[in-house]
Design a protein that fits this description.
Distance between the termini: 33 Å
Number of strands: 8
CATH topology: Porin
Radius of gyration: 17 Å
Number of helices: 1
CATH architecture: Beta Barrel
Helix content: under 10%
CATH class: Mainly Beta
Shape: elongated
Protein backbone atom coordinates (compact mmCIF):
# COMPACT_ATOMS: atom_id res chain seq x y z
CA UNK A 1 0.00 0.00 0.00
CA UNK A 2 2.90 2.34 0.75
CA UNK A 3 4.26 1.79 -2.77
CA UNK A 4 0.90 2.67 -4.33
CA UNK A 5 0.71 5.87 -2.30
CA UNK A 6 4.27 6.73 -3.31
CA UNK A 7 3.43 6.19 -7.00
CA UNK A 8 0.34 8.43 -6.72
CA UNK A 9 2.37 11.10 -4.90
CA UNK A 10 5.10 11.06 -7.57
CA UNK A 11 2.52 11.29 -10.34
CA UNK A 12 0.69 14.15 -8.64
CA UNK A 13 3.92 16.02 -8.01
CA UNK A 14 5.05 15.64 -11.61
CA UNK A 15 1.80 17.06 -12.99
CA UNK A 16 1.78 19.89 -10.40
CA UNK A 17 5.41 20.73 -11.09
CA UNK A 18 4.71 21.03 -14.80
CA UNK A 19 1.47 22.97 -14.42
CA UNK A 20 2.68 25.67 -16.78
CA UNK A 21 1.52 25.80 -20.37
CA UNK A 22 1.35 22.37 -21.97
CA UNK A 23 -0.66 19.99 -24.10
CA UNK A 24 -2.77 17.13 -22.81
CA UNK A 25 -4.05 14.13 -24.67
CA UNK A 26 -4.98 10.47 -24.91
CA UNK A 27 -3.14 7.57 -26.50
CA UNK A 28 -4.17 3.99 -27.36
CA UNK A 29 -2.57 1.17 -29.26
CA UNK A 30 -1.50 -2.42 -29.74
CA UNK A 31 1.06 -4.26 -27.60
CA UNK A 32 3.07 -7.24 -28.78
CA UNK A 33 4.84 -8.48 -25.68
CA UNK A 34 6.89 -11.40 -24.46
CA UNK A 35 9.16 -12.37 -21.61
CA UNK A 36 12.91 -12.44 -22.15
CA UNK A 37 14.20 -15.24 -19.90
CA UNK A 38 17.76 -15.32 -18.61
CA UNK A 39 18.80 -18.90 -19.35
CA UNK A 40 16.19 -21.48 -20.29
CA UNK A 41 12.75 -20.14 -21.15
CA UNK A 42 9.48 -21.89 -20.54
CA UNK A 43 8.27 -24.08 -23.44
CA UNK A 44 5.02 -22.11 -23.82
CA UNK A 45 6.59 -18.63 -23.80
CA UNK A 46 4.71 -17.24 -26.81
CA UNK A 47 4.07 -13.54 -27.40
CA UNK A 48 0.91 -11.90 -26.14
CA UNK A 49 -1.12 -9.41 -28.14
CA UNK A 50 -2.72 -6.83 -25.90
CA UNK A 51 -3.55 -3.16 -25.79
CA UNK A 52 -2.39 0.05 -24.16
CA UNK A 53 -4.56 3.05 -23.30
CA UNK A 54 -3.87 6.15 -21.25
CA UNK A 55 -3.43 9.86 -21.05
CA UNK A 56 -0.46 12.21 -21.09
CA UNK A 57 0.75 15.76 -20.68
CA UNK A 58 3.42 17.29 -22.89
CA UNK A 59 5.57 20.24 -21.84
CA UNK A 60 8.12 22.02 -24.02
CA UNK A 61 11.54 22.44 -22.44
CA UNK A 62 12.92 24.16 -25.56
CA UNK A 63 12.17 24.37 -29.29
CA UNK A 64 13.69 20.92 -29.80
CA UNK A 65 13.03 19.06 -26.51
CA UNK A 66 9.87 18.30 -24.54
CA UNK A 67 8.94 16.03 -21.64
CA UNK A 68 5.85 13.81 -21.55
CA UNK A 69 4.69 12.15 -18.32
CA UNK A 70 2.01 9.52 -18.98
CA UNK A 71 -0.33 7.28 -17.04
CA UNK A 72 -1.50 4.19 -18.92
CA UNK A 73 -2.95 0.69 -18.68
CA UNK A 74 -0.84 -1.88 -20.54
CA UNK A 75 -1.50 -5.59 -21.12
CA UNK A 76 1.90 -7.32 -21.26
CA UNK A 77 3.67 -10.58 -20.42
CA UNK A 78 3.33 -13.76 -22.49
CA UNK A 79 0.43 -15.72 -23.98
CA UNK A 80 -0.14 -18.38 -21.25
CA UNK A 81 -2.68 -17.13 -18.71
CA UNK A 82 -0.28 -17.47 -15.77
CA UNK A 83 2.23 -15.19 -17.55
CA UNK A 84 -0.27 -12.49 -18.59
CA UNK A 85 0.63 -9.31 -16.74
CA UNK A 86 -1.49 -6.16 -16.66
CA UNK A 87 0.12 -2.94 -15.46
CA UNK A 88 -0.70 0.64 -14.63
CA UNK A 89 2.43 2.34 -15.94
CA UNK A 90 4.00 5.74 -15.72
CA UNK A 91 6.52 6.41 -18.49
CA UNK A 92 8.30 9.76 -18.46
CA UNK A 93 9.53 10.38 -21.98
CA UNK A 94 11.94 12.98 -23.29
CA UNK A 95 11.05 13.92 -26.87
CA UNK A 96 13.74 15.16 -29.25
CA UNK A 97 12.64 16.87 -32.47
CA UNK A 98 14.21 15.24 -35.54
CA UNK A 99 12.14 17.17 -38.09
CA UNK A 100 9.03 19.39 -37.92
CA UNK A 101 6.80 16.28 -37.53
CA UNK A 102 9.14 13.49 -36.34
CA UNK A 103 10.32 12.95 -32.74
CA UNK A 104 12.62 10.48 -30.99
CA UNK A 105 11.36 9.48 -27.51
CA UNK A 106 13.34 7.95 -24.66
CA UNK A 107 12.87 7.60 -20.93
CA UNK A 108 12.21 5.46 -17.85
CA UNK A 109 8.97 3.72 -16.92
CA UNK A 110 7.59 2.34 -13.65
CA UNK A 111 4.73 -0.16 -13.63
CA UNK A 112 2.38 -1.47 -10.96
CA UNK A 113 0.96 -4.97 -11.64
CA UNK A 114 -2.80 -4.90 -11.10
CA UNK A 115 -4.28 -8.23 -12.16
CA UNK A 116 -2.83 -10.74 -9.67
CA UNK A 117 -1.23 -10.83 -6.23
CA UNK A 118 0.97 -13.40 -4.48
CA UNK A 119 1.65 -15.25 -7.74
CA UNK A 120 5.47 -15.25 -7.63
CA UNK A 121 5.68 -12.20 -9.90
CA UNK A 122 6.76 -8.86 -8.49
CA UNK A 123 4.17 -6.13 -8.20
CA UNK A 124 6.52 -3.42 -9.51
CA UNK A 125 8.39 -3.46 -12.81
CA UNK A 126 10.90 -0.93 -14.12
CA UNK A 127 11.66 -0.47 -17.81
CA UNK A 128 13.37 1.70 -20.36
CA UNK A 129 11.36 3.05 -23.30
CA UNK A 130 12.50 4.23 -26.72
CA UNK A 131 10.55 5.08 -29.82
CA UNK A 132 9.57 7.36 -32.66
CA UNK A 133 6.45 9.50 -33.05
CA UNK A 134 5.07 11.28 -36.10
CA UNK A 135 2.62 14.19 -35.99
CA UNK A 136 0.07 13.55 -38.74
CA UNK A 137 -1.63 16.84 -37.85
CA UNK A 138 -0.95 19.26 -34.96
CA UNK A 139 -3.41 17.20 -32.86
CA UNK A 140 -3.11 13.60 -34.16
CA UNK A 141 0.05 11.49 -33.94
CA UNK A 142 1.15 7.89 -34.48
CA UNK A 143 4.03 6.24 -32.68
CA UNK A 144 6.03 3.06 -32.26
CA UNK A 145 7.82 2.22 -29.01
CA UNK A 146 9.99 -0.54 -27.65
CA UNK A 147 9.97 -1.19 -23.91
CA UNK A 148 12.54 -3.44 -22.26
CA UNK A 149 12.46 -4.40 -18.60
CA UNK A 150 15.29 -3.31 -16.34
CA UNK A 151 14.17 -5.43 -13.38
CA UNK A 152 13.46 -9.16 -13.01
CA UNK A 153 9.70 -9.72 -12.91
CA UNK A 154 9.89 -12.89 -10.78
CA UNK A 155 10.36 -13.04 -7.00
CA UNK A 156 13.96 -13.76 -5.97
CA UNK A 157 13.08 -17.01 -4.15
CA UNK A 158 11.86 -18.67 -7.40
CA UNK A 159 15.31 -18.66 -9.01
CA UNK A 160 13.85 -17.62 -12.39
CA UNK A 161 14.88 -14.44 -14.18
CA UNK A 162 12.85 -12.77 -16.93
CA UNK A 163 12.18 -9.26 -18.17
CA UNK A 164 9.26 -7.78 -20.07
CA UNK A 165 9.85 -6.97 -23.72
CA UNK A 166 7.11 -5.03 -25.53
CA UNK A 167 6.54 -3.39 -28.91
CA UNK A 168 3.78 -0.76 -28.91
CA UNK A 169 2.08 0.74 -31.93
CA UNK A 170 -0.11 3.67 -30.94
CA UNK A 171 -2.21 6.58 -32.04
CA UNK A 172 -2.90 9.66 -29.98
CA UNK A 173 -4.86 12.88 -29.85
CA UNK A 174 -3.65 16.15 -28.29
CA UNK A 175 -6.25 18.56 -26.90
Amino acid sequence: MKKILLLVLILGTSFYGFSQEGKFGVRAGLNISNLDFDGTSLPDNKHRNGFVIGFFAEYALSNKVSITPELQFSAEGAKPEYLQLDYIQMPILFNFKLSPKMFFNIGPQAGLKINKVDDGIRNFAYSGVGGLSYNVTPMIFVDARYTYGISNIFDENLGIKAKNSTMQFGVGYKF
